[in-house]
Design a protein that fits this description.
The protein has 3 helices and no strands. The protein is elongated and about 180 Å long. The protein is 93% helix and 0% strand.
Length: 234
């Protein structure tokens, strides 16, 4: 039955028997077609099929769990053997550890003895080194004293040499001043002579220039007269 058919039936029942009775009657009608409604027999068949499928699935799971139980049994055996081997290894490690502890104790004793010997040797070496350092310090002090006395003598010699050098420099400066004064006087005399000679040379040059100018003027005047006479004759 379609929705349109249900709606038409509801309207017809409402007109015939009233709305309340029509609603009650429509509620008791199935929502689907009768061929789509499952019966108790259909439910029994479905239950049998589901039971058979579940039984087959659970059987397969039981087989798998059995295989897993076998594997876990094998693992338990292997773990037991491994535990036994680990116990043996632990016993061996304990024995080797005890032997190693004994060797370490012996090595510690030997090392302590060697360290004590080395400490005594180092102490003796340090004592001898201190005595040598004391002797060396005494020698250095004496050498420094002699070096100081030599330095004092050298300083005295240097001071005397510097004093003599200063006196020599003073005498040299005096001599240089005297000689420079003489050289300056001689140089001034020579400059005076040179100035006089330049004055005489300038006078001679001036005289010669004056004579040349006069000659040039005479020649010019003669040329002018000759030109004028030529023009007059023409």
């Amino acid at each position: 039955m379609t929705e349109q058919e249900r709606f038409a039936l509801h309207n017809k029942l409402t007109e015939t028997i009233g709305s309340e009775v029509a609603n009650t009657l429509m509620e008791h009608l199935p929502p689907l077609a009768w061929d789509q409604i499952a019966t108790k027999e259909d439910l029994r068949l479905l239950n049998r099929e589901l039971t058979a499928k579940l039984d087959s699935r659970f059987g397969a799971l039981d087989g798998r769990f059995g295989a897993l139980d076998g594997r876990f049994g094998a693992l338990d055996g292997q773990l037991g053997a491994l535990r036994t081997e680990m116990k043996g290894v632990r016993y061996e490690m304990d024995a080797q550890g005890a032997a190693l502890r004994g060797e370490m104790s012996e090595l510690r004793g030997d090392l302590h003895t060697d360290v004590s010997k080395l400490r005594s040797e180092v102490s003796s070496d340090i004592g001898s080194l201190r005595s040598e350092m004391s002797e060396f310090r005494t020698e250095i002090s004496s050498d420094i004293g002699s070096l100081r006395s030599e330095m004092s003598e050298f300083r005295t010699d240097i001071n005397s040499d510097v004093s003599g050098l200063r006196s020599d420099m003073t005498e040299f400066r005096t001599d240089m001043t005297t000689e420079f004064s003489q050289f300056r006087s001689e140089f001034d005399g020579k400059l005076g002579q040179i100035d006089r000679r330049f004055g005489q040379l300038e006078e001679r040059i001036s005289d010669k220039i004056s004579a040349a100018q006069r000659a040039n003027m005479a020649v010019g005047v003669g040329m002018m007269l000759s030109i004028w006479l030529s023009i007059a004759a023409f």
